[in-house]
Amino acid sequence: MERYAAAVSWLSRLSGYVAAGLILLAVLVVCQMLFVRYALGQSAIWQNEFVTFSLVAATFLGAPYVLLLRGHVNVELVPLWLGPRAKRVLGLAASLIGLVFCVLVFITSIEWWWEAWAGGWETSSVWRARLWIPYLSLPVGSLLLSLQYVAEVWAIATGRVPPFGALPGGAEA
Description:
It comes from Marinimicrococcus flavescens. By secondary structure, the chain is mainly α. The chain is built from 6 helices and no strands. Helix 1 (2-39) runs antiparallel to helix 2 and helix 4 (84-119) packs antiparallel against helix 6.
């Protein structure tokens, strides 16, 4: 399981770098779009769709990295009142619910992606982007997030990582 957690950690970091790259690329395309539109007076056909697809893909592909770093938002009111054992049980329950949700999103998004790929769906703009390409970020991101949740559940269950950012002595991180 240690190897699994290390491999998933590597994949989550890689997806985080890809997400950061997509955000940087979206910023560059916005700058290019502004230059083309206002300095050259030309139309920007593909830029709006590209930026939208890039930012959505960055969101889904960056989620496993955020979970790995525990950068997500926690509502810690209840865990603050709990002892270490109850906090661990609650952390496991929350992670398992997150895992089930991500698996359901993965299953549903595979069907949606497949419809776009098999149906040859394209955007209605002049650019006519094939939609299966941006839609792929949803099943890939939810699969990686599910794998990261499995590692998270294992880490909490074995005591390798305290739930909710708590330190082993009960202090908060």
